[in-house]
Amino acid sequence: MSDLTVGKKTKLSRRALLGASASTAAALATPALAQEKATIEWKMVTSWPKNLPGPGVTAQRIADQVTKMSGGQLRIRLYAAGELVPALGVFEAVSAGTAQMAHTASFFWQGKIPASVFFTAIPFGLLPHEHITWIEQGGGQTLWDELYAPFGLKPVMAGNTGVQMGGWYKRDIAVLDDLKGLKIRMPGLGGEVMRRLGATPVSLPPGELFQALQSGVLDATEFLGPWSDRAMGFHKVAKSYYTPGFHEPNGTGEALFNKLALDGLPEELRTIVLEACRAENGRALAESDWENAGSLKLLQEEDGVTIKPYPDDVLTALRETAKVVLEEFAGKDPLARRIYESNIAARERLAPWSNVAMRRFMAARDGAA
Which residue from 85, 105, 176, 269 has the highest number of Cβ atoms inside 10 Å of its Cβ? Predict the structure, then answer.
C-alpha cells in the first residue's frame, strides 16, 4: 500500500470524523433546545363511551394528532364519559377549568342555552356539507362564539357522523296516533317536535341508552347512524329502524375549549389544535359514510333488522310542527333570533344549489329521473 493511498484514506477518515463530530454535537444540542419548550399536559373530557365508533374514535384521533403534530409538546389525555366527569357534565368541567377541552355535541346544552341546538342540527335543517358551509362561510362560527362567550368557552366543529337515522322502535309507527305515549330518547328540537305530537321525550346520555331500551324505560331511541348504533347493540332489542332522521340531518361533533387555556397556548400550538379539529370534519364524515354503508348491510342481512320509512302523514305532521317549534324558539331572545335567521338564510341560499346539483344527479344516477 502506497503512502498516497494511506494519506487519502487518512483524509477521508478525518472528514468522516469531522462529520460525525458535527452530527454528535447537533444531536446533543437538540434535547437542550427542546427543553426550552416545556411539555404542556391537557385533559379532554368526552360525552362518549371510550372509542365509540364515530364520535369516540374522533375524539381519540384528535388527541393523538395534536400530540403527534406538536412533536409531543402538547399532550392531550382523553377521559371518556364518566371517567373524570359525567357524560353531560363536560360543558361545566371545561368552563370551570377542570379540563382544558371536551368532545361532545352542542344539542346537549339545550336546557341552559337553547340556541346551542343549531350547532348540531335542527329538524329538517342543513345537511353535513351545508352545515359546514354555514359555519365557515355563512357567519355561523361568529354567532357560535358569541353564544358561548359568557361561559368562557370557545366552540369549534370537530368531526361529523353524517346524516342520522330516524331511530329504533320497539313498536311500529303506522299512523300518527302511534306516537302518543311513546317514550323516546330524542335530544334537541326533534324531541320537542315529538312531544307536541304526543310522545314523551326522555333525556339520557349515550352510555345509558341500551339498558333503557332493553328494560322498557324507553320504547324507542335514536342515536347516530348504523355504524355507531350497531356498536351500541340497539338491534338486539328493537328490529324496526326508521328513516329519515328528520330531527338530525347533520351530525357535527363539538370541541369545547376553555378559552383562557386555548389563548394561553403559543400560537403554533393553538393553530395545531384548531387545525386538528378542522381536519377531522372531513375525515370523520368520510369514515362515517363508509362504515354506515357497511353496517347497514350487516344489520339487514345478519341481524334481522327492517328499515322502515316514516309514513307520509307522520312526516308531514313532523315537518309542520317543526316549523312552529322553530318560530317559537326564535322568539326566546335576540341572539336566538339572529342564529335562527342566519341558519334559515343559509338553507334558503344552499338548498336550490343542493337540489340542482345533487338531488337531480342522484335521481339520474339511480335511473329515477
Answer: 105
Strands 200-201 and 183-185: parallel
Q: How many CA atoms lie within 13 A of 320 on its CB side?
A: 7
Let me know: does 42 contact 77? Beta carbons within 8 Å.
yes
Angle at 299 between CA 123 and CA 233, to 5 degrees: 75
Give Cβ neighbours of residue 63 (< 8 Å, ≥ 6 apart): 44, 76, 77, 78
Please report how many Cα atoms fall inside a 13 Å half-sphere around the Cα of residue 125, on the Cβ side. 33
Specify the residue for cell string 357497511: 294
Q: Pick from 323, 307, 324, 312: which is nearest to 176 by CA?
A: 312
In this structure, the number of other CB atoms found within 10 A of the CB of residue 355 comes to 10
Degrees to nearest 5, angle at CA 100 with 95 and 102? 80
The size of the chain, in residues, is: 369
C-alpha cell at 1: 500500500
Would you list the domain boundaries of the chain? 40-161+250-289
Cell (9 digits) for 180: 302518543
State the architecture of 40-161+250-289 in CATH terms.
3-Layer(aba) Sandwich (3.40)
